[in-house]
């Protein structure tokens, strides 16, 4: 057991986490093993009896339990920030790494680990995390909060066999379009107006069809990253792309909170609107934070999307406060 005083950071105003309150929190490390891979988890416990519990699911890319990306040398630490902020407000939080280099995951059985190329296995990993959280901190409301691609995992978990255990779902900057469509949107936003995306579109069409990627894809700067990915990664992209986030969230019957930053360059604000519209008459709230990025930082004006991802300031505690306010109504 160790205290959060080792990782608490002091910022100005609403971003400040006092070291005194953070020192009252406790953390313990654990793992879950799914399909031949051991995955790192970290549990944050408040000083007293938890008034609720949150399973925090990571997004895409290779992230550790704190929400850092070692292979990219990016340290936004969103998941550590949220865990501390929710913890000091009385919630137990289990956060999980995403399998990949530098994240603390270990492949124990390479043959079994091939199943992680299917997006559905992410829901199995989340289910194992949910079981670990329920055992370690049996508190209600029990909330599943997924960030970015993890929001889609949260939808699958909350509408599947584990649905009876889940009291509510938080979509943290979740996309509303299939993955490859979102990737095209991100690329177009970085290109000059009217840029030719023909090679990218051909590459995506081939990927979706399971066909060889077109000649020239490796040399084209728009598609070189995709063309040089191993087959395992392409299979993962393809299987993720088959899942419709709006349709999956519409299957969730529990109350849903959609959280969206207005300065999100990875998942633009319009996605939150589409997710909310797809809920129709189901219990749904939409929380907008106009000044915040994909990792809920306050970004200086004029920075690029990559500079935005590289910000390592404390994530705004207003997001945790809004989650707690919403969760407090689940038990009424």
Protein architecture, described:
This protein folds into two domains: 2-178 and 244-328, Rossmann fold (3-Layer(aba) Sandwich); 183-232, no CATH class. It is built from 13 helices and ten strands. The protein has helices at 19-22, 78-87, 110-113, 120-136, 149-159, 179-190, 198-209, 224-227, 231-241, 245-250, 270-278, 305-309, 318-328, and strands at 2-3, 26-34, 37-45, 52-57, 91-96, 106-107, 142-147, 168-172, 256-261, 284-289. It is globular, with a radius of gyration of 19 Å. Residues 1-20 have low confidence and may be disordered.
Structure, briefly:
With 332 residues, the chain is of the alpha/beta class. The protein contains 13 helices and 10 strands.
List key phrases describing it.
332 residues; alpha/beta; Rossmann fold; 2 domains; 10-stranded mixed β-sheet; 10 strands; globular; disordered N terminus
CATH architecture classification name of the largest domain: 3-Layer(aba) Sandwich
CATH homology superfamily of the largest domain: Alpha/Beta hydrolase fold, catalytic domain
Strand content: 15-25%
Number of helices: 13
N/C terminus separation = 33 Å
Mean pLDDT: 92
